[in-house]
Design brief:
Blueprint (H helix, E strand, L loop, with lengths): L9 E3 L5 E3 L10 H9 L14 H11 L5 H6 L4 H4 L4 H6 L1 H17 L8 H19 L10 H14 L9
Antiparallel strand pairs: 1-2
Amino acid sequence: MEKLNYTNNSIRTYTGKVFDLAILDPDSIDIEDIAHGLAYAPRFAGQLERFYSVAQHSYFAFMNASPENKLAALLHDASEAYIGDMPSPFKKMMPDYRKIEENLMKAIVNKFGLSWPLPEEVKEVDRYMFQIEWNGLVMGLLPMHSWSPQVAKSMFLEAFHSCKIKTRSNG
């Protein structure tokens, strides 16, 4: 049996990597883990009548962003694949959590050739998607279909691979 190098700060990812939240090694960041984690992470802390994933939300952010910001929009919640999707009110109450999330996002966007902070357009698209999702999923004012985690993961990866990127590693 292979010995994994776990620490008190590490998690095991879908692809079998050990991801240490204190070290944030770029080689341990994997788009497959991000897609899988986001596909199974619910939006709105899971407080909906039906499942709606962060991966689906991210895909629609990607679709609504300008060409130069599509990858940033797709990855804007990528940290949640590793630390979960916390409701915004909780994040505002926990400055330490916000710092961990920001450091993780910096490592992820750097890995995929982006800069931090993400462009303002990404925040605007995220707010727009929040309103659409709120009106559709919570208020029932818009027809919205929820994807299965498998479909959400597939669509997320398809969007990612449609972007021409060069990943960065420390090796």
